[in-house]
Amino acid sequence: MKTIDSLGDLAGKKVLVRSDLNVPLDGTTITDDGRVRASVPTIQKLLDAGAAVIVTAHLGRPKGEPDAKYSLAPAAARLAELLGRPVTLAEDLVGDSAKAVVAALEPGQVAMLENVRFDARETSKVDEEREALAAELAELADAFVSDGFGVVHRKQASVYDIAKKLPAAAGTLVEKEVVSLGKAVTDPARPYAVVLGGSKVSDKLGVIANLLTKADRLLIGGGMVFTFLAAKGYEVGSSLLESDQIDTVKGYLATAEESGVEIVLPTDIVAADKFAADADALVVAADAIPADRMGLDIGPDSAALFASKLADAKTIVWNGPMGVFEMEAFAAGTKAVAQAMIDSEGFSVVGGGDSAAAVRLLGFDEAGFGHISTGGGASLELLEGKVLPGLAVLED
């Protein structure tokens, strides 16, 4: 994969950087700036090399047209604070404002284009439409650096097509993500344990199938665990359940047994009478969830069990929380997994998305983990063994 060094001397050149600035907002206030902070090293490296940097990114899911609530203005302001220099935000993507802002850009300065998804061509399924937008973006710059790991699994204009229009390379974040996740995907030190949570089994079908041929242990929690419990014939009450996946899960359980992969399920569950922070909650056995209650976290015995299964692991990958960690009453399971990863002497990877958010929300020191991914979907697809278009296009 081509890196920034392969682009040669960048002094005086304008470099278009695809960052991942898709941050959660409360109005115009960023509630978790992890992705903005993760974008800084690449931008700083380019500035140090004497380049002028043009940042492009998306925020949210605007419907292919400008929408003020999805403006990148909060991200531009936070990036300026982190870089310690102004970041000029254009009023559009490839229009008059963008062209004027870029034309005025000097080496060592930073500009940001407005939300790339304000243009419907960015996510178009029609190759020619994406290529047309990529061509307009390419007119603004001399080189392209792909640093938005959270979107490299997407065949989009600012991720894939642009890399064919300009000299292109991976940024330091994408490089770090590929190396770190590669340790877990290609040649993991063993025992290799994977913790999977989150709401739905269907979101992780490919990952589970692939890991059954690679991992030594799969620890299952979160909303998806109730489909596993149902597959074992247990009552799951009003818990989240994908009935149409029960047969698939039964197949996974059988395959794991045949191949010697240990699937670790919770022994107890925190069951509540409603989905609310003030719900009445009690700990019940995993095979005895009352019919009128829903499981919202793994129980204390399960948390201890999961920690013990991670204690001797040499490689740990975690994707998906163990419960509704945003509510204090249902955060203990997720906290236990995070702490066990920190306590482990193995190489640990937090697979982006809600897991990364949980680490920050629950106050853990990010330095305690081997790597915290910025891309939930992208990291899942790498674990699944898929070819990611935004990475493939950067190969030598």
TrEMBL record:
<comment type="subunit">
    <text>Monomer.</text>
</comment>
<comment type="pathway">
    <text>Carbohydrate degradation; glycolysis; pyruvate from D-glyceraldehyde 3-phosphate: step 2/5.</text>
</comment>
<feature type="binding site">
    <location>
        <position position="117"/>
    </location>
    <ligand>
        <name>substrate</name>
    </ligand>
</feature>
<keyword id="KW-0418">Kinase</keyword>
<feature type="binding site">
    <location>
        <position position="295"/>
    </location>
    <ligand>
        <name>ATP</name>
    </ligand>
</feature>
<feature type="binding site">
    <location>
        <position position="326"/>
    </location>
    <ligand>
        <name>ATP</name>
    </ligand>
</feature>
<keyword id="KW-0547">Nucleotide-binding</keyword>
<keyword id="KW-0324">Glycolysis</keyword>
<keyword id="KW-0963">Cytoplasm</keyword>
<feature type="binding site">
    <location>
        <position position="35"/>
    </location>
    <ligand>
        <name>substrate</name>
    </ligand>
</feature>
<dbReference type="InterPro" id="IPR036043">
    <property type="entry name" value="Phosphoglycerate_kinase_sf"/>
</dbReference>
<protein>
    <recommendedName>
        <fullName>Phosphoglycerate kinase</fullName>
        <ecNumber>2.7.2.3</ecNumber>
    </recommendedName>
</protein>
<feature type="binding site">
    <location>
        <begin position="352"/>
        <end position="355"/>
    </location>
    <ligand>
        <name>ATP</name>
    </ligand>
</feature>
<feature type="binding site">
    <location>
        <begin position="58"/>
        <end position="61"/>
    </location>
    <ligand>
        <name>substrate</name>
    </ligand>
</feature>
<feature type="binding site">
    <location>
        <begin position="20"/>
        <end position="22"/>
    </location>
    <ligand>
        <name>substrate</name>
    </ligand>
</feature>
<dbReference type="InterPro" id="IPR015911">
    <property type="entry name" value="Phosphoglycerate_kinase_CS"/>
</dbReference>
<dbReference type="InterPro" id="IPR015824">
    <property type="entry name" value="Phosphoglycerate_kinase_N"/>
</dbReference>
<feature type="binding site">
    <location>
        <position position="154"/>
    </location>
    <ligand>
        <name>substrate</name>
    </ligand>
</feature>
<comment type="similarity">
    <text>Belongs to the phosphoglycerate kinase family.</text>
</comment>
<feature type="binding site">
    <location>
        <position position="204"/>
    </location>
    <ligand>
        <name>ATP</name>
    </ligand>
</feature>
<dbReference type="Pfam" id="PF00162">
    <property type="entry name" value="PGK"/>
</dbReference>
<dbReference type="InterPro" id="IPR001576">
    <property type="entry name" value="Phosphoglycerate_kinase"/>
</dbReference>
<keyword id="KW-0067">ATP-binding</keyword>
<dbReference type="GO" id="GO:0004618">
    <property type="term" value="F:phosphoglycerate kinase activity"/>
</dbReference>
<keyword id="KW-0808">Transferase</keyword>
